[in-house]
What does this fold into?
Amino acid sequence: MLKFPDGFLWGTATSAHQVEGNNTLNDWWDWEAAGHVKNREISGLACDHFNRFEEDFTLSQKLNLNAHRFSIEWSRVEPSEGEFSDSALYHYRQVLESLHRHKHVPMVTLLHFTLPRWVAEKGAWENEKILFWFERYVRKCAQVFGDLVPLWNTMNEPMVYMFEALMTGHWPPGKISLARQIPVMRRLIQAHAQAYHAIHDESQRNHWKSQVGLAVYYRLIQPWNPHSILDRWAASLRDSVFNQLFLNAIHTGIIGFPVTFNQFDPNVKGSWDFIGLNYYSRGKVRFSLGCPQFLFTEEIALPGTEKNFLGWEVYPEGLYDALVDLARFQKPIFVTENGICTDEDIQRQDFIKRHLRELYRAIQDGVDVRGYFHWSLIDNFEWAHGYAPHFGLAAVDPVSQRRFPRESARLYGEIARNNSLEL
Ligand code: BGC
It folds into this structure.
């Protein structure tokens, strides 16, 4: 029996665009309409979670979960510049109230990749004004929802956004350019810090208790050939840019190379109360002259290892390594995402047990982990891959919209109910 600390949060995570359906006013809606998603799929009605959130939270409660992470869709709340939608604000208050009624601690993400169309049309993260727009939106959310939200993520995986939107071009705006990446990274760091301070301003004024952090993607990165100096250099470069740069900037206030020449920004320093860790897999990286757009580094799938439906290696030990690495920042940590897309539910059950064992090991070794949010509650729209990858504890019938909890849902619910994992 591996017993988790009292008060440990057990939840699942979702994001607005992936589950709500009919997010017609954002950049992804247009990206899908232009045929950029695999098999030209579109998100469409998704899981109709916009209308079925009560039912989904009832399912989550039945599984004995006590927390839920979801995102607010900026394009619903502010459909045109400076104009906030009362009905959308009301909707998300209903969502939050429903979570409280279902005895769930809500964790809100304010930006999970999608941007309102009006922001995208003005250049998205390439326009310096986004700092003002984003802060205004965040402040509004803090004012309207602050009494109901104990845990905020300013944004989800800023480096993944940067990577997919400006390095691979798989996501909107799909412009591949090194020159664009640098100012965008700097702006994402500043936007996070401004959001952090805006939420705290509002909650202090109203005597609400809120903790603010962000969810970072952390891929364990190792050299393809540990004996090659070039591969070691490539792996450490990837790790320092994709895993560490954002974290170090927030910790020290120093925005490192290549974003700036170690510029110090006092507003950025210490702008977190907790760290959200999204962990999925490990990457073996080698030096490659053929990949200048990826800083001359290339990731290669390790043959003979267990993979998920999308070919990502299943590597539970990496969760332990990531947690131990993050512990140096001396902040509470939530695993804000961890999960597997597979059509074999038995593989998901095994994935959950093996990852929770690593999480437990990290806690035993002194890492302050406060909760675990499995990705995801229900199968949903997996960005450029469409609907084929199934990450859910429950399947969703796209026609009837009925939810079918899998055996892994039962297993995860048992673990949450006992606050322990039986090996
Ligand atoms: C993202 C989710 C995504 C999941 C699985 C995370 O990087 O935050 O939106 O669905 O990974 O790919």
In short: The two ends are 6 Å apart (CA to CA). The CA atoms of residues 284 and 302 lie 7 Å apart. The first strand starts at residue 2 and ends at 3.
